[in-house]
């Protein structure tokens, strides 16, 4: 169970479907401020991950909002969070809908600095339209 006292506010970046614009892949995104409990994975936790997901830095994230991994079928990149000055992407999600808290638990892995292959572009919001926030 996640207690509110352990939660802090983090930036969650959620992507829209990727598109080809002038011959380059472009991913529009929206940033939201969300309340999450973020904890580093232990060495034992990292060893339980599949080989391809064992990254130098991984964190476990608890929250009361949906979190998403990359979806190849729809062409959507994984959610990202900004934690301690670095971006992490969602690599695995479990939703605990049968608990009183109804929380989501996810593993996020550190991503390298942008390589320039995909252009990231913030979604332009209309005047008076706020950013998505809260705990979902």
Describe the model.
The chain contains one helix and eight strands. It is mainly beta. A hairpin with an 8-residue loop joins strand 6 and strand 7 (104-110).
Output the keywords:
136 residues; globular; 8 strands; mainly beta; disordered C terminus
Q: What is the count of DSSP helices, taking H or I runs of 4+ residues?
A: 1
Percent range of helical residues: under 10%
Largest sheet: 6 strands, antiparallel, barrel
What is the residue-mean pLDDT, rounded to a whole number? 78
What's a concise summary of this model?
By secondary structure, the protein is mostly beta strands.
Give the SSE layout.
Elements lengths: L7 E8 L3 E3 L2 E17 L2 H5 L10 E6 L16 E4 L2 E10 L8 E7 L7 E5 L14
Parallel strand pairs: 3-8
Antiparallel strand pairs: 1-3, 1-5, 2-3, 3-4, 4-7, 5-6, 6-7
């Amino acid at each position: 169970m996640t207690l509110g006292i352990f939660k802090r506010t983090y930036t969650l970046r959620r992507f829209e479907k990727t598109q080809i614009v002038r011959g380059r892949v472009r991913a529009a995104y929206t940033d939201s401020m969300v309340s999450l409990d973020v904890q580093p994975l232990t060495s034992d936790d990292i060893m339980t991950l599949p080989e391809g997901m064992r990254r130098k830095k991984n964190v476990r994230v608890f929250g009361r909002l949906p979190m998403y991994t990359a979806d190849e079928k729809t062409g959507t990149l994984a959610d990202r969070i900004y934690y301690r000055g670095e971006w992490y992407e969602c690599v695995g999600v479990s939703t605990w809908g049968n608990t009183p808290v109804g929380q989501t638990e996810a593993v996020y892995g550190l991503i390298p600095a942008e390589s320039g292959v995909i252009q990231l572009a913030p979604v332009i919001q209309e005047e008076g339209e706020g950013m998505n926030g809260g705990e979902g």
